[in-house]
Backbone:
């Protein structure tokens, strides 16, 4: 992965390149990005530039042996730690090394992948949740205890460190604070507020901004998207290349919007529609846990969009045309008197799903609470 293959972020690229050229690489950095901004790709390009045998003034050469290995994610001194879960054949194991081949293919297919993409590639059972385990921490400690095989700098790139539980994170605190010589930690996250404070205090923060309009226009032009569609796609993507990928292929959450409307209709009078509501809940709990969490995140975003439809300029709305047509009719049911309660309910639902709550009970209770809120005009 070379810097030239990453969309935009020139200021961040210059900062990383300068640190290598000055030989002043911080031993632990936290890349805080918005989804689709390229944080993970930047971390890999940074490791490649730092270890390139023939680096240029603004990028790695891409042709030396180190570059070839890092491009394929097979360099022995570049280590990854990503959220995983034990499958039925590995009930006691939950480490990146157990899924190295899948991770390699997932990243190479799309360096801008999100956690939902990764979970889909793992193809786990419905009730599985991704996390960074104590076994993962022990594996990192073991790998970093060895001397460098061939690289100048040994890198440990940790994706989604918010998925650490406290015991797993605490196992690495000493190593992150005082790593072996020429060892660099790069943590990449979209959820800065969910990382434990002891990790935050030991890392140098690097904020990676959303992609600009001009940067996204360059992408759309390369994809030969018609000019009349470009403005709409840029607005809807909100600076996220990952979201733009879905929008270009017309797959971004249209099914979520339809499903949301069905659910809200059933919630309007749950006593009358009790049997269909139970059927909807039965269908929902069959989804994978990560999909359920993504759905409730979409519900919270819907509350914002409905308020914009009701009280602001609709040009600010980030729904696709198909979503807008359906949800604009529902928008009046979310207003200034109940919007915060709606958001809190969906936020609580996401929290409970993340902690393995009984989804059937939670959703039934949530549906009755929504019914009361919809009566507030």
Residues:
């Amino acid at each position: 992965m070379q810097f030239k293959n990453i969309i935009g972020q020139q200021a961040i690229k210059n900062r990383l390149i300068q640190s290598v050229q000055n030989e002043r690489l911080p031993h632990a950095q936290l890349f805080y990005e918005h989804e689709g901004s390229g944080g993970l790709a930047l971390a890999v390009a940074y490791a490649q530039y730092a270890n390139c045998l023939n680096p240029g003034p603004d990028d790695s050469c891409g042709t030396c042996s180190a570059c070839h290995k890092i491009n394929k994610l097979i360099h022995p001194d570049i280590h990854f730690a990503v959220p995983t879960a034990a499958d039925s054949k590995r009930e006691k194991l939950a480490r990146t090394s157990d899924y190295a081949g899948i991770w390699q293919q997932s990243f190479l297919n799309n360096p801008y992948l999100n956690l939902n993409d990764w979970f889909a590639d793992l193809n786990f059972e419905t009730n599985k949740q991704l996390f960074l385990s104590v076994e993962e921490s022990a594996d990192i400690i073991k790998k970093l205890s060895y001397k460098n095989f061939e690289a100048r700098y040994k890198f440990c790139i940790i994706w989604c460190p918010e998925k650490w539980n406290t015991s797993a994170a605490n196992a690495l605190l000493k190593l992150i604070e005082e790593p072996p010589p020429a060892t660099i930690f790069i943590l990449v996250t979209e959820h800065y507020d969910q990382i434990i404070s002891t990790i935050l205090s030991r890392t140098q923060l690097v904020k990676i901004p959303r992609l600009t309009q001009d940067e996204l226009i360059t992408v759309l032009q390369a994809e030969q998207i018609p000019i009349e569609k470009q403005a709409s796609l840029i607005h809807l993507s909100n600076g996220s290349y990952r979201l733009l990928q879905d929008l270009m292929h017309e797959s971004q959450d249209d099914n979520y919007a339809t499903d949301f409307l069905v659910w809200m209709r059933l919630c309007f009078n749950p006593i009358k529609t009790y049997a269909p509501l139970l059927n909807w809940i039965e269908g929902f709990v069959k989804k994978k846990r990560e999909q359920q969490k993504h759905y409730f995140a979409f519900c919270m975003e819907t509350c914002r969009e409905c308020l914009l439809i009701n009280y602001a300029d609709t040009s600010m709305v980030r729904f696709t045309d198909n979503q807008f047509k359906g949800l604009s009719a529902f928008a009046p049911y979310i207003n200034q008197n109940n919007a915060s309660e709606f958001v809190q309910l969906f936020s609580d639902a996401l929290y409970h799903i993340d902690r393995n709550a009984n989804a059937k009970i939670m959703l039934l209770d949530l549906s009755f609470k929504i019914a009361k809120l919809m009566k507030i005009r």
